Amino acid sequence: MAAALRMLLLVTVVATSTQLTSAQQSVTLTEPTMYELAGLFKQSDIVALVKVISGDTETYNVAVYKGEVLESFKGTVVGSTIYFGPYVGERLGWEYILFLRNVPKTIGPKAASSGSYGTIHYSEIFNEGYTSMETSYECVFGGKDVAKKCDYAVRVCTDYIELPKSIAAFPPETDDPPFGCRWVRKTAFISLLDALGNPKK
């Protein structure tokens, strides 16, 4: 009896080990791609300043956010509603500059639910999440007085998104901010996106 139990235990351990090993082999980590901003713009189906209205992490197979387009640079119109994801962490009520790729098929909720958005057209934040850029009021820019030091800003992770030399990012390269993300003045960044969207201007 004891030998039979030992044999059963051994078989269970081997089977569990095999399952864990095959599960571990299916996980792949990828490093984000380095893009020049113009190349990122070109690779995107939608580029827009979007206010996040709501989010759903329960009903769909991915996190889905509902946003209102405040300013469009490519692929959408001001005032339209867009649905995007899949990364958790976008702040409700906040504004983001989003570079998105359209998913060819619509997505629907896992089960019928009165609280879901229904079946929707969905766009993806890509490049491991670095194509979603938070906007906020920051006091990180050079200068001694508030008028020069503080401004509306866009958080750009310059370790993965290369800005033109004409756009200053703060803190300077000598500092090492988390994830290589720095702030640029929102007005300058939006002017640059306008120029990319309307090259004839």
Keywords:
201 residues, alpha+beta, OB fold (Dihydrolipoamide Acetyltransferase, E2P), 2 domains, 5-stranded mixed beta barrel, two-stranded parallel ribbon, 4 helices, 10 strands, 23% helix, 30% strand
Total count of domains: 2
Which percent bin holds the helix content?
10-25%
Q: In the CATH hierarchy, what is the class of the largest domain?
A: Mainly Beta
The percent range for strand residues is 25-35%
Largest pleated sheet: 5 strands, mixed, barrel
Produce a short descriptive summary.
The chain is of the alpha+beta class and about 200 residues long. It is about 25% helix and about 30% strand.
Provide an overview of this structure.
This protein is of the alpha+beta class. The protein folds into two domains: 35-133, OB fold (Dihydrolipoamide Acetyltransferase, E2P) (Beta Barrel); 135-197, no CATH class. The chain has four helices and ten strands, in the order αβαββββββαβββα. A five-stranded mixed β-barrel has the order 2-3-4-6-5. Strand 3 (64-74) and strand 4 (81-85) form a beta hairpin. The longest helix has 24 residues, at 2-25. The N and C termini lie far apart (85 Å). The relative contact order is 0.15.
